Amino acid sequence: MELLLDIALLAMLLITAVSIAWIKDLLAAAMLAGIYGLLSAGFFMTMGAVDVAFTEAAVGAGISPLLIMLTLALCGRYQRGDAKRAMLTLLLVIPVGALLMVATHDMPAFGAADAPAQLHVAPHYIRQSMAEIGIPNIVTSVLASYRGFDTLGEVVVIFTAGLGVLSLLQTSQHAGSPALQTIPAASAAQSRDIVLRVVAKVLIAPIMLYALYVQFHGEYGPGGGFQAGVIFAVGFILYGLAFGLDAVTRVASHGLVQFLSAVGVLIYGSVGLLSLANGKNFLDYSALASDPIGGQHIGIIAIELGVGITVASVMIMVFYLFSAQMRQSAQDVPAAASGQRETLTPITVDTPSIEQGAG
């Protein structure tokens, strides 16, 4: 039964991927991308990667399609046909795909006991994690403690990506300008929809509570800062879509979101510096308390909080920037049309009348 489920999910993933590449309607492709993310989350669930499924469901099926649709509102819905570019893409993709398929023959069977991943550090994590870290969730032990350097790098990458989007989409107005305070014209009709408002009021509070649960329950079950941060961002974005940016920026202004995106990284790095100050290695949480296990708990909670703050802030900031760009574009279109009308206004010249000419 599990094999049939895997085959069905993989088949639907393949059909969805081919449809995304084939279809010319970019809005439909964005919807299919959300479906692809949801199917991927289901596939990760069947493989037992619940933490990855959390993130894929929130990002791949939630925030990413929304940002793609905001992008389409700026650049257009339909893709221009370009046979030469499509042929060039096929010539690139087909050999790469063939090489990947050939490479899979050298990979060990899935779940094989003699696979390198099973013989390297996995036995130590499985057998010693509880004694060294004191956390039932081995995934959290690995991500937050054993490979804390790597996770710090991931948080810095997310923060840097947010800075990149900020540098590209930052409008000329200040953070408190109408471009960030007013909802985009494309979503104005949605904000007046009574059904959407009621559903949002019902869902936002449980979303926030669930984000808190995922944030602080990551030691004992699937979850952590990455997943909780994305879920927090989904709650704010839903609030902005239903009630407008004017309402959501009163709760979390654009400047505050930018500030918090850096605060999360600083919290993570400060934990490592505090470990150094107590005579231990960087990110060695055992230095944070007299009991090494207690220090691990304190350190993991602190750095997961930093991860959650940065992830949520960057996601919300990207939504603000895209929405502000849409608003600016909506304001520029009437101005451009008005300027065009002014240039086309006929110029009247005083000419002598017929009677004057005859005289």
Describe this structure in words.
It is built from 16 helices and no strands. By secondary structure, the chain is an all-alpha fold. Helix 1 packs antiparallel against helix 2 (26-46), helix 7 (138-146) crosses helix 8 (148-169) and helix 7 (138-146) packs across helix 15. It is a multi-pass membrane protein.
Major pleated sheet: none
When the domains are counted, the total is 2
The portion of residues forming beta strands comes to: under 5%
Secondary-structure content class: mainly alpha
Summarize the helix and strand pattern as letters: HHHHHHHHHHHHHHHH
Total number of helices: 16
Low-confidence stretches: 172-190, 341-359
N- and C-termini, Cα separation: 104 Å
What is the strand tally?
A: 0
Question: What order do the helices and strands come in, and which of them pair?
Answer:
Elements: H1 2-22, H2 26-46, H3 50-75, H4 83-103, H5 116-119, H6 122-132, H7 138-146, H8 148-169, H9 178-181, H10 188-191, H11 194-216, H12 225-243, H13 245-251, H14 254-277, H15 292-343, H16 354-358
Helix pairs in contact: 1-2, 2-3, 3-12, 3-15, 7-8, 7-15, 8-14, 8-15, 11-12, 12-13, 12-15, 14-15
